[in-house]
Design a protein that fits this description.
Helix content of chain A: under 10%
Number of strands of chain A: 11
Shape of chain A: globular
Oligomer: heterodimer
Radius of gyration of chain A: 13 Å
Distance between the termini of chain A: 37 Å
Largest sheet of chain A: 7 strands, mixed
Number of helices of chain B: 0
Order of helices and strands of chain B: EEEEEEEEEEE
Number of strands of chain B: 11
Largest sheet of chain B: 6 strands, mixed
Number of helices of chain A: 0
Largest interface: A-B, 29 and 23 residues
Radius of gyration of chain B: 13 Å
Helix content of chain B: under 10%
Chain lengths: 116, 111
């Protein structure tokens, strides 16, 4: 069964450093997403990406964040200058399309980001 | 008012029990509805989409009441492996598939 993969599984970084989280969405999916979950809290939407551009982003997704699809398979989330409050689990997800029935999102196993 | 509201639980039930979870959502423009399950420190896994007419998948039955903005999930014949957090999730029309998650309801099934 096709699945979303993410690397690394755990990233430890110092405050102020840049991190890049990587995802490989399901191959025939066209919509890609990043979510985050701070420990003990609910899953929160960060950004959606379609046709090589951001289609929607949340208030959390400020200028410190960017996304890219550098090639035909990878989808990345970059945080330019990490803060302590960026510590969270970051989930990548993908869906076949945006229509009803095709909008089921499948999540990767997540990258646990720890900022010290 | 929270966008998606769930009873946090925990629901502690014996194996074989039937358990029901409820969820309310605030935005009447919500178009798609889902139940996900999440095990501790793992990713949300899609359990089932919820359709207007209600739908069933094995031991799981989901219902949607658009007028009351209410979604439910019924689990019959609970198994130990059903122990997890159940997340109620909605997707707004025109929201470019931005999923809005509830905080989840924790279920613990004991022998």
């Amino acid at each position: 069964e096709p699945e979303v993969t993410q690397t690394p599984s755990h990233q430890v970084t110092q405050m102020g450093q840049e991190v890049i989280l990587r995802c490989v969405p399901i191959s025939n999916h066209l919509y890609f997403y990043w979510y985050r979950q701070i420990l003990g809290q609910k899953v929160e939407f960060l950004v959606s990406f379609y046709n090589n551009e951001i289609s929607e982003k949340s208030e959390i997704f400020d200028d410190q964040f960017s996304v890219e699809r550098p090639d035909g398979s990878n989808f990345t989330l970059k945080i330019r200058s990490t803060k302590l409050e960026d510590s969270a689990m970051y989930f990548c997800a993908s869906s076949e399309d945006g229509t009803r029935g095709g909008d089921e999102q499948y999540f990767g196993p997540g990258t646990r980001l720890t900022v010290t | 008012r929270k966008e998606v509201e769930q009873d946090p639980g925990p629901f502690n039930v014996p194996e074989g029990a039937t358990v029901a979870f409820n969820c309310t959502y605030s935005n009447s423009a919500s178009q798609s509805f889902f139940w996900y399950r999440q095990d501790c420190r793992k990713e949300p896994k899609l359990l089932m989409s919820v359709y207007s007419s209600g739908n069933e998948d094995g031991r799981f039955t989901a219902q949607l009441n658009r007028a009351s903005q209410y979604i439910s999930l019924l689990i019959r014949d609970s198994k130990l492996s059903d122990s997890a957090t159940y997340l109620c999730v909605v997707n707004l029309e025109g929201g470019y598939n931005k999923l809005i998650f509830g905080a989840g309801t924790r279920l613990a099934v004991h022998p």
